[in-house]
Specification:
Pfam families: Peptidase_M28. InterPro entries: M28_fam, Peptidase_M28. One of its GO terms (molecular function) is metalloexopeptidase activity. This is M28 family peptidase. There is one protein chain. The protein is α/β, with parallel strands linked by helices. It has two domains: 296 residues, Aminopeptidase; 153 residues, Glucose Oxidase, domain 1. Helices cover 28% and strands 22% of the residues. The protein is built from eleven helices and 20 strands. Strands 1, 2, 9, 12, 13, 16, 17, 18, 19 and 20 form a ten-stranded mixed sheet that branches. The chain has an eight-stranded mixed sheet with strand order 4-3-11-6-7-8-10-5.
Length: 503
């Protein structure tokens, strides 16, 4: 089934905005043409403007900007209108600031029903279907006390139930989203063993560690799977259900029977990238682009935490979205020799989908993109700390670009850089979790600016009031100064010979 009902009103609004957001105001002031040796226009990056924009974009009124919803489209229109007000050129499709693309979403249908011994289990309260699937079950349940019991009898074609077992190894202490990672790792390890036995379905009862996390983790299962049309749908597999302890108590009796009707829906939703351009000063080099990258979406509305159900995503990633507006303002006032291309990606939180789409369908010639300077979360933690991912091997793909970023920091912003998160052995795998990755895969020099994780990451506590505005301005200046150097260096930065993406 294909449906647009939740996003149609905002799609109409965005369509109207496509018609109106086609050119900057006629009254935009003329740019000051500066020589290549001129310093960056730091005065254009103002804390008051950053604060104002941040509190608007991360406000409750935009409801967390979840990809594939009206709220994400409204946020995109807000970004495009601010870019227009700043006098930035539209650089999206058809002379607009927008590049729409389709998201395919697979969900567990509301018609799904699960019963144990004739007693219904409430979907998303007592039981979670961990992946969308079409299946019918009506069979006795075999309870396994341990995985060793899989060797004692044939389980082919049987419905098997167990208690969820702790994963080995456990997620690293203090790792972000620890409970989610615990459950995901446990499910992956345990179901892999059972699938090899040819079981027909798997029912896992939460252990004491997983039980308190079911509301948060279960929301992600309820949300389903998002993809681009070019991505292969998930391969059919056996149903896996995760149950609360109270709901799963009857399974251990050895006399349980499950009856289930598992259905799934397929929807196509629009998502959108916002693209603006500040032309360069050099008649020839302005055809090349320094691409500043961030994402405007976040996690939307979820189960309340301490009474707050809106994941505002102020640091993740409204900070970079407003930083890019400030960079555009600075470039407009004092252009670099090359042009600045600003791309606000949609659907990053659903799997880097907007940046993947743009890397595959750029609105400028791909060869004109000299470098990508991506930012994600640049407004928290100690005032003088920051990180530059992609600056050390094996993640580094352009030594020349790294040198420019390090020199800009040394000359202007003087952050103490934490390089440990660039280590491929770091448990967070942070390098692979932001929008520079599709560009690296496309063979373009790219870096990732960040001030790293904090306890409010992916919670409703990621609010604009918690952002260090002075640090946000300083990080914005660092990204801008790096792009300024890339823009004004006669020879393009290149990809290092032999560079390849490794984990």
């Amino acid at each position: 089934m294909f449906s647009f009902p939740q996003v149609l009103p905002a799609l109409l609004l965005a369509s109207a905005a496509v018609l109106s957001c086609t050119r900057p105001p006629a009254s935009s002031s003329a740019a000051v043409i500066a020589p290549a040796t001129a310093p960056p226009a730091f005065a254009a990056i103002r804390e008051d403007e950053l604060r104002k924009d941040l509190f608007e974009l991360a406000s409750d009124s935009l409801r967390g900007r979840r990809a594939g919803t009206a709220d994400e489209l409204r946020a995109a229109v807000w970004v495009a209108e601010r870019a227009r007000q700043l006098g930035l050129e539209p650089a999206g499709d058809d002379g607009t600031y927008f590049q729409f693309y389709p998201l395919r979403r697979l969900t567990v249908a509301a018609s799904t029903k699960v019963q144990v011994n004739g007693q219904p289990l409430a979907l998303w309260q007592d039981a979670w279907v961990t992946a969308p699937i079409e299946a019918r079950l009506d069979a006795p349940v075999i309870w396994l006390p341990t995985l060793a019991d899989t060797a004692r009898t044939s389980l082919r074609g049987k419905v098997v139930a167990m208690r969820l077992l702790p994963p080995r190894p456990l997620p690293a202490p203090k790792m972000s989203l620890w409970g989610f990672r615990y459950i995901l790792a446990a499910l992956n390890q345990q179901t892999a063993v059972l699938r090899r036995q040819g079981v027909a379905a798997i029912m896992l009862v939460a252990d004491n560690t997983a039980e308190p996390q079911l509301g948060f983790v279960g929301h992600r299962y309820q949300d389903g799977v998002y993809q681009l049309p070019s991505m292969a749908p998930p391969a059919p597999t056996v149903p896996v259900l995760l149950l609360r302890q109270a709901a799963g108590a009857a399974l251990a009796s050895g006399k349980a029977r499950v009856k289930a009707e598992l259905d799934m829906n397929t929807f196509i939703y629009p998502s959108v990238n916002v693209i603006a351009r500040a032309p360069g000063a050099d008649a020839a080099l302005r055809q090349e682009h320094v691409l500043f990258s961030g994402h405007h979406d976040h996690d939307g509305v979820g189960d309340p935490v301490a009474g707050d159900s809106i994941w505002n995503g102020a640091d993740d990633n409204a900070t970079v979205s407003v930083a890019m507006l400030a960079i555009g303002r600075a470039w407009k006032q004092r252009p670099g020799q090359r042009s600045a291309l600003l791309v606000w990606h949609g659907a990053e939180e659903r799997g880097l989908l907007g940046s993947r789409w743009y890397a595959e369908h750029p609105t400028v010639p791909k060869a004109s993109i000299v470098a990508v300077l991506n930012g994600d979360m640049i407004g928290r933690n100690a005032p003088d700390s920051a990180a530059l991912l992609g600056s050390t091997g094996p993640h580094r793909n352009s030594t020349a670009l790294v040198d420019m970023a390090l020199q800009a920091n040394q000359q202007f912003t003087k952050f103490t850089l934490d390089t440990s998160w660039d280590d491929p052995k770091h448990p967070e795998g942070w390098y692979f979790r932001s929008d520079h990755v599709p560009y690296v895969r496309a063979g373009i020099p790219a870096l990732f600016f960040t001030t790293l994780l904090h306890p409010d990451y992916h919670t409703p506590r990621d609010e604009a009031s918690r952002i260090d505005i002075a640090k946000l301005a300083r990080m914005t200046r660092w990204m801008y100064a790096t792009g300024w150097a890339v823009s004004n260096t006669p020879q393009r930065v290149g990809v290092d010979p032999g560079a390849k993406l490794e984990r």
